[in-house]
């Protein structure tokens, strides 16, 4: 039995010779965790998820969902995963009840009571046709369809995009409620940092197809720090060490972001004779911005 | 599965009902029009078997997949835990099922005459024909439907998909054609051929569609790569098999060519076409004058021509004495004398080349042949009239001229020329026989000897014309390294050109090479037979003729051979008849010499050797002596002819199958 719900090694997708959407992705999503896959639009989140679902041919590397290769066992994976695609469109001529019935026929593990429960909870009108639903309702219906067969893993690809803040909140509430009752794994892709902060156990940050980091959220907050260093005169140009993520200068002031912060970092800095050095805590948003900002 | 089918039905039922509506409308509308505007029978057949089915296949094929793209529901469908192959099958076959249902409906509503067709026809034969027509219709519709599916999977949009489908069909045709030719050549009959070809052509587009679906739609791989790879594989199979067929055909052809070469048969136009001669030696120029003059005479003496002996419908023995006198009189007119003098001058010339454009192949014109025949008859007429006037020596000279006339066609390497030569000789020999048959006509031994030596000079073989046939006519259809074809393409009719370029095209080459090999082999055999005594190869030569027209499917494999060669199957017989005709008259003349020497006809034929003839010619139809006996005051010598029965020396032009002896008969 695999220990991770999702595991990738060197997963790469190249669309054309120049354009690499996902670059050698190494990622582990532990079972039972809520993993937030954070990245700006176009960072490669959807590409990664589609490869995990067997909906896209990977160029190289390995991917495994419950230890199964999505290229070889896509049907088994789809059975055990609740997947909400990015901007998922369902058949707009079907009424909600028919959509539910349609979906139901594919899953032996489908729970009618759960579906009923969710229909009521999400306040979805059974007879309304899909084409008449609001975006929020559409998202909720998609979520219902992903949950009602009681999957072990939920893969949600930007499910809240296009929703207004109130609906988004409601939606997240829904997710949190459902998943925390059971030990489900959730793989949640989003570009909205506050969402991540609300529900994440783990955070993976993707930028231009590269996974910049993948860590538990609390550990991330402990390890990524900002240090404000002030020098007497010129800032020495040769400041660099492995933990360094980013540096910025304002006159005599140097602001650097480091990962894996330990007091050791401060010791290394003191080698450059700064006037003072101050360690600052970062929010997830700060971390995200400092990581995906252009200059290093 | 059920859900998926239900979903497909829900999505396509609108189209289905619309289609049913269209069928019903096309049934009703013409009924509202006056009958003379529209023939309902033709209209309904056309509509229900061609127009509507094609429209339905195109539309159904293009919408069954594009629904998912138009509404962007592809991801949702694909995220269901169902194998993508199954999704494809459901979509493909539900569309196909609807198509078949629509076909039945359009048939039922528009035509509805299955029972009629079976009743009026001849039972099972008609039924198999209906079934095979239905199978062909259905297969072509499946092909169109599948091509539309493929097109829609590539373009993800119905309308462009419909527009592109014809191009894809052409593309498919290109892919499958070489394989088709291979299958055609290896199939022993039409059933095996269709059994092999139909699955291949039906499967082509579903395979393309399935691969595109599985890779491009499901896995988002660039469809260009998939199509490229699949096309390469199919092309390899298709052109590979074609190349094998081509190689085999080339070997067969070069074997045939080698064989022909070792037998010394001429194979190039240069060898076959007779060399030109200087104008001063060319009898053709003089004949040309004679032809023109004959035309003038014919116009001038229209009335007299009505009973001109052997030229007209009136038989010479039915001519009145008055008519004979009139003909005798006009023959003494200066222009007639000039005309006969021209021919006499021409037959004394060393050679003859009519202006024939051999390079035009089958479209070459041979106007001189009909005229030469006409000349032979006019000479025959003159011989007859002179004999009637009892000017026997002049008649003999005229007959001699007739005997030499045909020889001027001997150089022409075309079969028709040789057949005309045979006919001209037959006229001349007949003319001599008639002259000899007159009571009291006796010539000197020298005169007889001259006639015999004229007959002995004659070319007895048609070989030359077979070579000409091989190179100039049949060979014309086959593209070969000699650039004869290119030469001939500059002239020749459009149909010939089209056929030649089509038949010479790379794709058809395995067929045309085999055809050419068959053609060469057949002509080489015929050439061989033409050099042997007829009786010894008669059976094989008859068999030879049958090999090209046994079965329609097989003969398609060598279409030029089977179109041109059967006409040659009686050629060997023609040659034998010619020889029998020449030899029986030679014997007849020799017997006349015997009579002048001994005052009586010989008792047996062998009495004339070795004194008068060194040896006796043999009847080509039996390999034995000609039959000779004395009859009344005269004698008869004859060959038993092609039917190989002694018909008592009777020849009857109207019942040639019963009385076909080739006879020289003198009654006094």
Calculate the terminal CA-CA distance of chain A, rounded to whole Å: 41 Å
Question: What is the H/E string of chain A?
Answer: EEEHEHEHHHEHEHEEHEEEHEH
Q: So, the CATH homologous superfamily of the largest domain in chain A?
A: P-loop containing nucleotide triphosphate hydrolases
The CATH architecture of the largest domain in chain A can be named as 3-Layer(aba) Sandwich
Number of domains of chain A: 2
What's the structural domain tally of chain B?
Answer: 4
**Tally of strands of chain B:** 3
Helix content of chain B: 55-70%
Mean pLDDT of chain A: 85
Q: What does this entry look like structurally?
A:
- The complex is a heterodimer of chains A (296) and B (668).
- Chain A has 296 residues and is of the alpha/beta class.
- Chain A folds into two domains: 4-218, P-loop containing nucleotide triphosphate hydrolases (Rossmann fold), CATH 3.40.50; 224-292, 2-Layer Sandwich (Alpha-Beta Plaits).
- Helix content of chain A is 32%, strand content 29%.
- Chain A is built from ten helices and 13 strands.
- In chain A, the strands form three sheets. A six-stranded mixed beta sheet of chain A has the order 5-6-7-3-8-9, sandwiched between helices. In chain A, strands 11-12-10-13 form a four-stranded antiparallel beta sheet, with helices on both faces.
- The longest helix of chain A has 17 residues, at 165-181.
- The two termini of chain A are 41 Å apart.
- The mean pLDDT of chain A is 85.
- With 668 residues, chain B is mainly α.
- Chain B folds into four domains: 2-221, no CATH class; 263-454, no CATH class; 465-572, no CATH class; 580-668, Glycoprotein, Type 4 Pilin, CATH 3.30.700.
- Chain B is built from 26 helices and three strands.
- Chain B has helices at residues 2-32, 40-70, 74-78, 84-111, 114-120, 124-155, 158-186, 190-217, 223-262, 269-272, 283-300, 302-305, 321-330, 334-347, 367-388, 392-405, 415-437, 445-457, 463-474, 484-489, 494-504, 509-530, 534-546, 552-556, 559-564, 571-598, and strands at 627-631, 634-639, 662-666.
- A three-stranded antiparallel beta sheet of chain B has the order 1-2-3.
- In chain B, strand 1 and strand 2 (634-639) form a beta hairpin.
- In chain B, helix 4 packs across helix 8 (190-217), helix 6 packs across helix 7 and helix 11 (283-300) runs antiparallel to helix 14.
- Residues 480-485 of chain B have low confidence and may be disordered.
- At the A-B interface, helix 2 and helix 3 of A face helix 1 and helix 3 of B.
């Amino acid at each position: 039995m695999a220990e991770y719900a999702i595991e990738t090694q060197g997963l790469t997708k190249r669309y054309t010779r120049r354009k690499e959407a996902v670059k050698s992705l190494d990622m582990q999503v532990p079972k039972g965790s809520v993993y937030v896959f954070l990245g700006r639009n176009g960072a490669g989140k959807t590409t990664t998820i589609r490869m995990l679902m067997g909906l896209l041919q990977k160029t190289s590397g390995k991917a495994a969902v419950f230890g199964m290769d999505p290229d070889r066992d896509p049907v088994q994976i789809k059975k055990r995963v609740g997947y909400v695609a990015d901007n998922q469109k369902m058949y707009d001529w079907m009424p909600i009840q028919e959509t539910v019935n349609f979906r139901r026929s594919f899953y032996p593990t489908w729970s009618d009571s759960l579906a009923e429960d969710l229909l009521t909870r999400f306040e979805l009108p059974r007879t309304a046709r899909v084409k008449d639903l609001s975006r929020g309702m559409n998202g909720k219906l998609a979520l219902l369809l992903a949950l009602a067969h009681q999957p072990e893993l939920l893969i949600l690809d930007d499910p809240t995009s296009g929703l207004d803040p109130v609906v988004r909140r409601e939606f997240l509430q829904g997710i949190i409620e459902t998943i925390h009752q059971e030990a489900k794994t959730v793989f949640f892709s989003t570009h909205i940092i506050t969402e991540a902060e609300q529900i994440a156990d783990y955070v993976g940050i993707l930028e231009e197809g590269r996974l910049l980091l993948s860590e538990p959220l609390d550990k991330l907050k402990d390890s990524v720090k900002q240090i404000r260093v002030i020098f007497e005169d010129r800032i020495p140009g040769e400041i660099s060490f492995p933990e360094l993520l980013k540096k910025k200068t304002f006159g005599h002031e140097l602001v650097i972001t480091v990962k894996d912060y330990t007091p050791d970092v401060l010791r290394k800095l003191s080698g450059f004779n700064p006037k003072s050095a101050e360690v600052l805590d970062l929010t997830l948003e700060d971390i995200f911005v400092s990581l995906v900002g252009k200059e290093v | 599965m059920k859900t998926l089918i239900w979903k497909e039905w829900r999505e396509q039922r609108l189209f289905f009902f619309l289609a049913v509506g269209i069928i019903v409308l096309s049934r009703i509308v013409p009924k509202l029009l006056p009958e003379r505007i529209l023939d309902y029978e033709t209209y309904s057949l056309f509509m229900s078997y061609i127009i509507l089915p094609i429209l339905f296949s195109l539309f159904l094929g293009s919408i069954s997949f594009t629904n998912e793209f138009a509404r962007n529901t592809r991801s949702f469908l694909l995220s269901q835990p169902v194998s993508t192959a199954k999704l494809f099958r459901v979509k493909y076959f539900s569309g196909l099922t609807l198509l078949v249902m629509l076909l039945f409906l359009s048939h039922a509503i528009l035509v509805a005459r299955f029972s009629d067709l079976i009743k009026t026809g001849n039972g099972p034969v008609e039924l198999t024909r209906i079934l095979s027509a239905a199978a062909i219709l259905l297969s072509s519709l499946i092909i169109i439907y599948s091509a539309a599916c493929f097109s829609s999977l590539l373009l993800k949009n119905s309308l462009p998909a419909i527009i592109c489908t014809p191009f894809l069909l052409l593309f498919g045709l290109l892919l499958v054609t070489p394989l088709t030719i291979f299958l055609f050549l290896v199939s022993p009959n039409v059933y095996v051929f269709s059994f092999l070809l139909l699955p291949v052509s039906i499967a082509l587009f579903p395979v393309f569609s399935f691969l595109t679906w599985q890779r491009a739609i499901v896995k988002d791989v660039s469809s260009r790569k998939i199509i490229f790879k699949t096309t390469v594989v199919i092309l390899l199979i298709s052109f590979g098999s074609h190349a094998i067929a081509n190689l085999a055909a080339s070997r067969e052809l070069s074997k045939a060519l080698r064989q022909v070469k070792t037998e010394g048969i001429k194979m190039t136009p240069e060898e076959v076409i007779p060399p030109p001669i200087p104008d001063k030696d060319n009898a053709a120029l003089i004949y040309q004058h004679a032809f023109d003059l004959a035309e003038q005479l014919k116009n001038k003496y229209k009335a007299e021509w009505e009973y001109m002996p052997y030229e007209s419908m009136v038989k010479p023995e039915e001519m009145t004495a008055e008519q004979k006198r009139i003909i005798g009189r006009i023959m003494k007119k200066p222009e007639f004398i000039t005309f006969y003098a021209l021919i006499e001058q021409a037959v004394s010339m060393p050679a003859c080349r009519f202006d024939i454009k051999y390079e035009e192949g089958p479209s070459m014109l041979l106007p001189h042949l009909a005229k030469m025949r006409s000349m032979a008859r006019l000479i025959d007429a003159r011989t007859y009239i002179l004999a009637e006037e009892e000017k026997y020596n002049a008649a003999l000279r005229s007959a001699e001229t007739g005997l030499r006339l045909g020889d001027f066609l001997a150089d022409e390497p075309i079969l028709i020329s040789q057949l005309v030569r045979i006919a001209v000789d037959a006229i001349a020999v007949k003319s001599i026989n008639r002259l000899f048959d007159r009571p009291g006509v006796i010539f000197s031994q020298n005169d007889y000897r001259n006639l015999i030596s004229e007959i002995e000079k004659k070319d007895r073989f048609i070989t030359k014309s077979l070579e000409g046939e091989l190179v100039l006519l049949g060979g014309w259809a086959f593209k070969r390294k000699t650039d004869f074809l290119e030469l001939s393409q500059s002239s020749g009719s459009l149909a010939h050109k089209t056929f030649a370029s089509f038949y010479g095209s790379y794709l058809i080459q395995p067929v045309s090479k085999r055809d050419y090999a068959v053609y060469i082999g057949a002509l080489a055999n015929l050439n061989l037979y033409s050099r042997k005594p007829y009786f010894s190869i008669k059976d094989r030569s008859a068999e030879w003729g049958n090999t090209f027209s046994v079965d329609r499917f097989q003969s398609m494999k060598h279409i030029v051979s089977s179109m041109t060669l059967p006409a040659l199957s009686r050629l060997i017989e023609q040659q034998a008849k010619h020889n029998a005709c020449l030899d029986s008259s030679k014997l007849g003349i020799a017997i006349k010499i015997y009579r002048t020497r001994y005052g009586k006809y010989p008792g047996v034929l062998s009495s004339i050797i070795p004194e008068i003839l060194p040896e006796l010619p043999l009847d080509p139809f039996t390999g034995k002596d000609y039959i000779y006996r004395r009859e009344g005051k005269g004698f008869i010598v004859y060959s038993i002819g092609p039917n190989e029965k002694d018909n008592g020396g009777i020849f009857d032009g109207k019942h040639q199958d019963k009385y076909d002896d080739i006879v020289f008969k003198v009654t006094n």
